[in-house]
Write a structure and sequence with these properties.
about 350 residues; alpha/beta; TIM Barrel; 13 helices; 14 strands; hydrolase
Length: about 350
């Protein structure tokens, strides 16, 4: 593999397996590509993951960003050899009884999650989930910290602080909020029929509270019918007027995966990428659709700007990071792991007790 000197582009793509193919190497060196997102299928063990991330980073200068959906709970792509991060909802439930402990645990989860990823060469995770727990979303569920936006803000601030200690940026999702609509945007387009005032006074609160702590945001494939007929990720009303102007967000905006059914009503994949960029997305994700990636590469016309480079710089990892062996020598990391494991043991005990009845 010959390294190429090439600035990072706006396209986030995936790969098929646990090592790169010749075709994928060619894809990842394309000027439009700027990030690789990994999934569970790309992971066998820590050594394999480290080798894969090394090979990806070796393709480009500056190196491609390597990301993953690694939030905790049921959304944790890598498990063997990684600390099991509890669901964010379990932290929210703890907050109702022991707020200080919940805050400390959220910070510990952020640090451990980010530190273990970085020690394997993963640069970024799409977390935290800022959606409110209305108890009716099929896809959010226990990914949400809490129904109360203030509690979401507090715990997300702690989690992001822990991630920052490990030199990792964050991504708040799914703006303005995916917790109210019941449908799963992976398989259909959810519709949220609340007025803008309700969304502003509830779902948008964490985005306003976190402010400059949010280095990136991902909008929802949800149509808010009283505000705009287009899903939020394709809407200038949401991305430009609400997020950029009213809330003052200056970081990077990712689209959600454009291959999801929630994006299908916009048109074919190139139409979706055009619409996402036009609405204000800086980077677009196309996952599990290699043909769609090739269509976008062949047809998308994108112009680099100074503003794009500035926003992209905010999501890059900060500082060099130790190996997994080196991480085990870090007292703060070990203390955080012990806190998480003790909490997991409590959750398991409660689950076993409940099952007994």
């Amino acid at each position: 593999m010959e390294k190429v000197d090439r600035p990072l582009g706006p396209l986030v793509v995936d790969i098929a397996g646990t090592e790169l193919t010749d075709e994928e190497i060619k894809l990842l060196q394309h000027p439009m590509v700027g990030m690789v997102i990994l999934f569970t299928r790309n992971f066998e063990n820590i050594d394999q993951l480290h080798n894969l991330t090394h090979d990806i980073h070796a393709l480009r200068n500056p190196p491609l960003i390597i990301g993953v959906d690694h939030e905790g709970g049921r959304i944790q792509r890598f498990r063997e050899g990684f600390t099991r991060i509890p669901s964010m909802n379990s932290l929210g439930q703890l907050y109702d009884k022991e707020p200080q402990r919940a805050h400390s645990l959220a910070a510990a989860c952020g640090l451990v999650m980010a530190a273990e990823l970085r020690a394997c060469g993963v640069d970024f995770t799409f977390a935290p989930c800022l959606d409110l727990d209305y108890g009716q979303s099929a896809v959010i569920g226990t990914r949400s910290f809490h129904r109360n936006p203030r509690v979401v803000s507090i715990l997300a601030t702690a989690l992001i602080g822990g991630m920052s200690q490990a030199g990792m940026a964050c991504c708040g999702k799914h703006f303005p909020g995916h917790g109210y609509a019941s449908a799963d945007s992976h398989v259909e387009l959810p519709v949220d029929d609340r007025p803008l005032s309700d969304i502003r006074s509830n779902d948008e609160v964490p985005y306003k509270s976190l402010g400059v702590l949010l280095t990136s945001v991902m909008p929802a494939h949800v149509a808010y019918s009283q505000v705009d007929s287009a899903p939020a990720g394709f809407s200038k009303k949401w991305l430009q007027e609400e997020l950029r102007t009213r809330l003052g967000f200056t970081g990077l905006i990712f689209s959600d995966d454009l291959s999801m059914k929630g994006a299908a009503e916009i048109g074919e994949i190139t139409a979706r990428s055009d619409a996402a960029f036009a609405a204000g997305c800086d980077m677009i994700l196309i996952c599990n659709d290699p043909d769609g990636v090739q269509q976008v590469l062949a047809n998308q016309r994108w112009i680099r700007t100074k503003l794009f480079d500035e926003r992209l710089a905010r999501i890059l990892p900060r500082g060099k990071f130790p190996s997994r062996d080196g991480l085990e020598l870090n007292a703060n990391y070990k203390t955080c792991v012990e806190m998480i494991e003790a909490f997991n043991a409590e959750l398991n005990q409660k689950a076993e007790t409940a099952a007994a009845f």
